[in-house]
Amino acid sequence: MLETKGIPTHFIDTSAPNEMRVCRVEILPLEVVVRNIAAGSLCKQTGIALGTIVNPPLVEFYYKNDDLGDPLLTRDRLLLMKLATGEQVDQLETAAREINEILKEFFSQCGITLVDFKLEFGTDKHQNLLLADEISPDTCRLWDNSETDPDARVMDKDRFRRDLGSVESAYQQVLKRVLAQKV
Ligand code: TMP
Fold first, then answer.
1. Using CA atoms, how far apart are residues 1 and 71, in angstroms rounded to an integer?
2. Residue in 30, 31, 33 to alter for ligand 1 test, most ligand atoms within 8 A of Cβ
3. Is the CB of 29 under 6 A from ligand 1?
4. Rg (Cα) of the chain, in Å, rounded?
5. Structure confidence at residue 1 (pLDDT)
6. 118-166 confidence digits (pLDDT tens)
7. Distance between CA 120 and CA 96 in Å, rounded?
8. If exposure means fewest CB atoms within 10 Å of the residue's CB, which of 49, 58, 93, 164 is most exposed?
9. What is the pLDDT of residues 50-83, one digit of tens each?
10. Among residues 65, 101, 61, which one has the least CA distance to residue 78?
């Protein structure tokens, strides 16, 4: 769906229900997080209240490094560490914002609010920047628009992180709504 809307990705096709063929890329050691609504580490680190609308959406870069605890990076730190070029940082931010608009609209049609999500990117042998990895309830915060209760509305990995139960049925509900949506 993203490819048809002009976002270059590593996806080729699905060879089985639990497999996908992808173009080989060199993954940038960055997690690109986009936030539409305050939740998770944004609330924890800034004191901003859960559920606060983030407008314009926030695009953040985290360093994928378990030993360092995946720290939040500034643009200058990112350049200092040579994790990407300035041009790539601009491309990443632009792509992340475009993907956000597409996914926000798509999930909205599923009756789901896209709160925030994480993306990864890589470069192919021609140095093209491609969206890579996965987009799933493990990597997004998704809230059910038909629920007002703050715990009941959670359809993503926060059900597991916060021990809210019904993880599998929430994920199945996301899948059902996504598959029902024509793309
Ligand atoms: P955060 O609020 O914990 O920083 O997470 C922001 C978004 O990024 C949330 O949708 C979960 C996703 N995420 C991952 O997919 N992998 C990670 O390692 C982290 C820290 C967050």
1. 31
2. 33
3. no
4. 17
5. 94
6. 999 999 999 999 999 999 999 999 999 999 999 999 999 999 999 999 9
7. 10
8. 49
9. 999 999 999 999 999 999 999 999 999 999 999 9
10. 61
Q: What confidence score (pLDDT) does residue 182 get?
A: 73
How far is residue 152's CA from residue 42's CA, in Å, rounded to a whole number? 21
Judging by beta carbons within 10 Å of its beta carbon (0-12, 13-18, 19+), is residue 94 exposed, middle or buried? exposed
The closest residue, in CA terms, to atom 20 on ligand 1 is 70
Res 17: pLDDT: 86
Q: Give residue 147's identity as a one-letter amino acid code.
A: E
Residue 33 and residue 39: Cα distance in Å, rounded? 12
The answer to whether the CB of 136 is under 6 A from ligand 1 is: no
Domain residue spans of the chain: 3-142
Domain 3-142 belongs to what topology?
Answer: D-amino Acid Aminotransferase; Chain A, domain 1 (3.30.470)
End-to-end CA separation in angstroms for the chain: 6
Q: What is the largest CA-CA distance in the chain?
A: 48
Report yes or no: 26 and 10 within 8 Å, Cβ to Cβ.
no
Cβ of 41 below 6 Å from ligand 1: yes
